[in-house]
């Protein structure tokens, strides 16, 4: 059973009221820093990334600087996050591509973004949304879990969930809903012990999909 258009709007309205400040939790000052931070955040909490990026960006404030970085030095800075060895190589290679192909600037183009080292569909969507203001839906573990659990979509993988959400949600609210679902997943609709008694959309939840 799908949500009716008015029900979807009501669901989004409730989440927006519950999380009025929902937005990108990764600290950044420009699109370059955003891109690097999102790449580093894969399978790691935003909080842990925010602890190491100030040092990283102070030492490497631009793509040109990071492109010339010593990998061992980068690894030392980001050692506390998951997959730091792989990520150190990816962000240096990414910076080289930005420097050589885009004059050090992050491209405002999905197809170009996903060709960069360490950049997948989710990362590209976050950068386009937060960095460039496009309406995009980036499906992380929270968005995937929450939207399937409540019955907004009924999909078994991330890509199908993203495509289904693009159909189910008004395009003007894609970015907003992305952040709302993340905040709801972190603060209420957790994976193992969802706090249903405190959920603002509990009466609308179909408890479907992944359950």
UniProtKB/TrEMBL annotation:
Catalytic activity: 2'-deoxyribonucleotide-(2'-deoxyribose 5'-phosphate)-2'-deoxyribonucleotide-DNA = a 3'-end 2'-deoxyribonucleotide-(2,3-dehydro-2,3-deoxyribose 5'-phosphate)-DNA + a 5'-end 5'-phospho-2'-deoxyribonucleoside-DNA + H(+)
Domain spans labelled HhH-GPD: 40-187
One term of GO molecular function: metal ion binding
GO BP of this protein: base-excision repair, AP site formation
InterPro entries (UniProt xref): DNA_glycosylase (IPR011257), Endonuclease-III-like_CS2 (IPR004036), Endonuclease3_FeS-loop_motif (IPR003651), Endouclease-III_FeS-bd_BS (IPR004035), HhH-GPD_domain (IPR003265), HhH_base_excis_C (IPR023170), HhH_motif (IPR000445), Nth (IPR005759)
Residues reported to bind [4Fe-4S] cluster: 189, 196, 199, 205
Domain of life: Bacteria
TM ranges: none
Gene3D superfamilies: Helix-hairpin-Helix base-excision DNA repair enzymes (C-terminal), Hypothetical protein, domain 2
Cofactors demanded by this protein: [4Fe-4S] cluster
Enzyme Commission (EC) number: 4.2.99.18
Keywords: 4Fe-4S, DNA damage, DNA repair, DNA-binding, Endonuclease, Glycosidase, Hydrolase, Iron, Iron-sulfur, Lyase, Metal-binding, Nuclease
Sequence similarity: Belongs to the Nth/MutY family.
Protein purpose: DNA repair enzyme that has both DNA N-glycosylase activity and AP-lyase activity. The DNA N-glycosylase activity releases various damaged pyrimidines from DNA by cleaving the N-glycosidic bond, leaving an AP (apurinic/apyrimidinic) site. The AP-lyase activity cleaves the phosphodiester bond 3' to the AP site by a beta-elimination, leaving a 3'-terminal unsaturated sugar and a product with a terminal 5'-phosphate.
This protein's name: Endonuclease III
Organism, as annotated: Candidatus Allocopromorpha excrementigallinarum
Encoding gene per record: nth
